[in-house]
């Protein structure tokens, strides 16, 4: 299920549930560096999968309305699920937005911080 298909209260609840695993992934310097440098989606997916398997399973379970504690997809369905996540423009825009926020925070001019 795409994030854009979830609306209203369901969207708010899902967002609350996904924030922790998504933030863990977005906070990973390897992931943010790969996204900011424009690495191919396959490289980004590999970095995420190798370093954040539990977070990905939690997100996939929640998107599929399954219990994250018992969710156990097979290797045969995972590639399509990961592909669907990577092709979800709304989800990918979250990663790009996170990188832009970090960039904006650190790009303040040094002269702006000097007291008069």
Give structural notes.
The protein has helices at 8-27, 29-36, 41-51, 53-63, 78-87, 89-106. Helix content is 67%, strand content 0%. It has 6 helices and no strands. The protein is an all-alpha fold. The longest helix has 20 residues, at 8-27.
The string of secondary-structure elements, in order, is HHHHHH
Relative helix content: 55-70%
| Secondary structure tally: strands | 0
Global mean pLDDT = 80
Instruction: Give the termini distance in whole angstroms.
Output: 54 Å
Number of helices: 6
Low-confidence stretches: 100-116
- Principal-axis shape: globular
What is the radius of gyration? 16 Å
Mind summarizing the main beta sheet?
A: none
* Assembly annotation: single chain
Structural class computed from helices and strand pairing: mainly alpha
Strand content: under 5%
Topology:
Elements: H1 8-27, H2 29-36, H3 41-51, H4 53-63, H5 78-87, H6 89-106
Helix pairs in contact: 1-4, 2-3, 2-6
Would you kindly provide a brief summary of this structure?
The chain is mainly alpha-helical. The chain contains six helices and no strands.
Keywords:
mainly alpha, single chain, globular, 116 residues, disordered C terminus
């Amino acid at each position: 299920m795409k994030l854009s298909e979830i609306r209203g209260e369901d969207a708010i609840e899902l967002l609350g549930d996904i924030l922790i695993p998504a933030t863990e992934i977005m906070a990973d310097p390897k992931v943010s560096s790969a996204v900011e440098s424009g690495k191919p989606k396959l490289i980004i997916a590999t970095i995420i999968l190798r370093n954040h398997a539990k977070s990905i399973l939690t997100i996939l379970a929640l998107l599929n309305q399954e219990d994250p504690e018992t969710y156990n997809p097979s290797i045969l369905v995972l590639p399509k699920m990961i592909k669907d996540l990577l092709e979800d423009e709304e989800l990918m825009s979250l990663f790009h937005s996170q990188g832009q926020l970090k960039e904006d925070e650190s790009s303040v001019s040094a002269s702006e911080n000097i007291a008069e």
